[in-house]
UniProtKB/TrEMBL annotation:
Gene3D superfamilies: Na+/H+ antiporter like domain. The lineage of its organism: Bacteria, Pseudomonadati, Pseudomonadota, Alphaproteobacteria, Rhodobacterales. It is a multi-pass membrane protein. This is Putative Na(+)/H(+) antiporter NhaA homolog. Keywords: Cell membrane, Membrane, Transmembrane, Transmembrane helix. The chain crosses the membrane at residues 12-29, 70-91, 112-133, 145-164, 171-194, 200-220, 241-258, 303-321, 327-353, 365-383, 395-414. The gene is nhaA. Its main location: membrane. One of its GO terms (biological process) is regulation of pH.
Length: 416
């Protein structure tokens, strides 16, 4: 097992700190928490929280009875979920891109079969359990079906490291499942959690801008250099322009994705393939990448520190739930995560094993499935994107938080 970047562990503690502060503030000082996270920064038509939901939940606190033709309310919470978290998805997307494309990528060719099947199984089974229990109990929260499908890569890494040790193959397996889950989550956000009709013009505009920058600052210099090992043109372009062209096109791509009707948190993903990258992969969030000088890894290093602050804000804005909101939806989420995730991963592994041969021992596989049931950041994002009434959203988020505590108990039973 390769050495994983230290910042991945630090993200877990920033998430935990934000979540604990949010729970304390929301339950002891609810009005203060609402002012901090739901104060209306501005009113608009495309970006922000649904105006009807905001008015129902917070209108009385701010003495606002009606919003006229306002469609969206921008708050710190919505800015964090829809704008700032794009940096986190950029980091996850970068690792996914390298795992799929680069030499020795962990998800290239047949290497993708086992984690791919396990990851997809770990998405499908929890979603089916959630939908089945939602129908059986008539909780009317089907829009939140994606909540139990994701693995939080930072939390899973820390818990997996404690459970298995730093060099156990099950830890690498968990990281790969988390990356597959992130890929599915990005697709789900694009396909199922967009509030506006799709405007193809803006998607094409984003694609055209990315292709233009790729051609001028990446492909053309490589063609000019040919087989020259010194790469003089690429070096000159990199030293003269650095990340500036990609920052500019990233800003435009974010705007275009948001205007297209897709969830704006996906806005930085299109620029990832355009940025010059290393020749080979070293592993998901490998420490070795901190010593590489290609522009894509430089961008990752630049974003890694502000992303820690963003994850703290995200946890603070999303984990502040009323503890009295516990209900059937809470139990549904816990069951879907704690039971559905390990079961789905095990089934996916069995299917893949017919083509790849045996994988992890059964005990380690079950433990890896339990670790992978640590849903947090994107699970909370799905809970928010489902746009359910506040009481239901709080019950779902409480289920996410409870499931994290339940993972420790499940692991203790499996590893005993």
């Amino acid at each position: 097992m390769y050495r994983v970047w230290d910042f991945l562990s630090s993200y877990t503690w920033t998430l935990a700190t934000g979540a604990v502060l949010a729970l304390v503030c929301a339950n002891l000082f609810p009005d203060v928490y609402s002012v901090l996270t739901a104060f209306p920064i501005w009113f608009g038509q495309t970006l922000g929280q649904d105006a009807g939901h905001w008015l129902e939940a917070h209108g009385r606190l701010f003495d606002i009875d009606e919003l006229g033709d306002v469609a969206r309310v921008v708050t710190l919470g919505s800015l964090t979920n829809q704008v700032f978290m794009a940096a986190f998805l950029f980091l996850a997307g970068k690792e996914l891109w390298e795992a799929l494309i680069l030499d020795r990528g962990a998800l290239r060719g047949r290497d993708a079969l086992l984690p791919g099947c396990a990851g997809i199984g770990g998405v499908v089974v929890p979603a089916l359990i959630f939908l089945g229990l939602n129908t059986a109990l008539s909780t009317q929260a089907g829009a939140a079906w994606a909540v139990p499908t994701n693995t939080d890569i930072a939390v899973a890494y820390v818990i997996g490291r404690l459970a298995f040790g730093p060099s156990h193959p099950a830890l690498r397996f968990v990281l790969l499942i988390a990356i597959v889950d992130d890929a599915v989550a990005m697709a789900v956000l694009a396909l199922f959690y967009s509030d506006h009709p799709l405007d193809v013009f803006w998607l094409l505009a984003a694609l055209a801008s990315v292709l233009a920058v790729y051609g001028l600052f990446n492909l053309w210099p490589r063609l000019r250099d040919g087989s020259d090992p010194m790469k003089p043109v690429q070096t000159r372009i990199r030293l003269r322009f650095g990340l500036v062209p990609y920052v500019l096109v990233g800003g435009f791509a974010f705007y275009a994705v948001q205007r297209s009707g897709l969830n704006p948190v996906l806005g930085l993903l299109p620029v990832i393939p355009a940025i010059p990258h290393a020749d080979r992969a070293f592993g998901v969030f490998s420490q070795a990448e901190s010593h590489l000088h290609d522009l894509l890894n430089r961008a990752e290093r630049m974003l890694s520190y502000p992303t820690g602050v963003i994850l703290f804000l995200f946890a603070f804005c999303n984990a502040g739930v009323d503890l009295s909101s516990i209900g059937p939806l809470t139990a549904i989420v816990v069951i879907a995560l704690i039971l559905g995730k390990p079961l789905g991963i095990a089934l996916g592994t069995v299917v893949a094993g017919r083509f790849t041969g045996p994988g992890l021992p059964t005990k380690d596989l079950l433990a890896a499935g339990a670790v992978a049931s640590c849903g947090f950041s994107l699970s909370l994002l799905f809970a928010d994107a489902a746009a359910l009434p506040t009481e239901q959203t709080d019950a779902i988020k409480l289920g996410i938080l409870i499931s994290l505590a339940a993972v420790a108990g499940v692991l203790a039973l499996i590893r005993a």
